[in-house]
Amino acid sequence: MKLAILGSGRGSNFMAIAKAIEEGKLDATIELVISDKPDAMILTHASSLGIKAFAVPSADYPDRKTHEEAILNHLESHEVDLVVLAGYMRILTPYFIEKYRDRIINIHPSLLPSFKGLHAQKQALEYGVKVSGATVHLVNEEVDAGKILAQRCVPVFETDTVETLSKRILTVEHELLPEVLMKISMGEIQLPRRSK
Ligand code: GRF
Fold this sequence. Notes:
Layout: E1 2-6, H1 12-22, E2 29-35, H2 41-48, E3 53-55, H3 64-77, E4 82-85, H4 94-99, E5 104-108, H5 120-127, E6 131-138, E7 148-155, H6 162-185
Helix pairs in contact: 1-6
């Protein structure tokens, strides 16, 4: 299973995937890591592991479509099977999604469909939920709304801050995302068949 990972920041979920591969738990290869941010840590982490990693900055393109076309060209030339969004902070257009329909997965730090979008952990705290967690889902045209592949929950404590809750959720993200990829690679999670 050939993976491409798209991320805009820290890259801790990327590292969890790379670790699972390194430890022989996940039968996959990370073909390339692409960021829209040239200074993203995810690129530094990937390069240090010898994985092809580079930025495709949106500012270099006149519009979203040409930016996405540039990324799609890289994905196609590497014959990627699955695109993993790991902290990728841009919303993909229907054009991109159609090219990799049911082959793009995202990790989100809440139990969807609760708390979609930005600052999910802050939203959860403000709402006062007693349980939150992480969701891995397929990406469709609506933000954080595609078919749910897996979820894991964590408790929310009265004393929690955004930082403590985010940290607790991140720990389960690092387990859940590689596990989902493992299950996809072994056929335990079946992605919808492609019609083309
Ligand atoms: C994670 O919390 C993920 O759920 C969200 O963005 C964050 C990315 O973190 N989509 P990292 O870059 O993987 O460390």
